[in-house]
Amino acid sequence: MPISPSEFVGLQRSLLRQAFVLTLLISACVAQQPTPVAPPAPEPTGTGAEQPLGTVVRTSKQQAGSKAKKVITEDDMDAVANILPKIRMDDAENSDEIITAIGRYKASHTPEETEEVVQAWYERYDEDLAAAIRQNVTVTTLREENFSNENEMCREGGDYQACEKRRRAEYVGVRHDQTTIRNNVIMEMRIQHVFMKVRSGIIRYNLRYEWFKIRTANGIDTF
Q1: pTM across the whole model
Q2: pLDDT exceeds 60 at position 180
């Protein structure tokens, strides 16, 4: 059916109005959409008291270069004991030299340091004295037991030749033990003598130590 010019114009205006309304609706929908918001910046994790980078680097170097604390070893203790002269065993005793060395050390060190050095020196030779006394007591006891057992076996065995061999072997053992005992006695007497002189000699420096005891040959008593 053909459309007249007036109807065509009316239809065109109706379409324009619909298009205009549609445009308004689309604009309104777009306007109602929320505006995209940028994500918040991460909050700083520091406390506000961070050190400058240069300070951190210097601190790290100091920590890396710091040395661990030294562990005291037996070698260190020997070094302390060797500050004072050793007791001379094969020649004239040297207690005067030791006393002088103690006084010289005391003049430039604290009372605690002086006592440490004297005690380390004392303990070194006190151990030697104790070992010599123990060995002599042990050797003497074993020798007496062997002599008693030998006589008992000879009386009960009746074998003269076997008994004579044991006596000869025992004689060799006795000679060896006598040498050991004699050497130990010499050491004991030297250490005891030097200890007595040093203990009384350091009184001039006002040094008196309760632990400075001297062992006797029986291995029990001290004075």
Answers
A1: 0.59
A2: yes
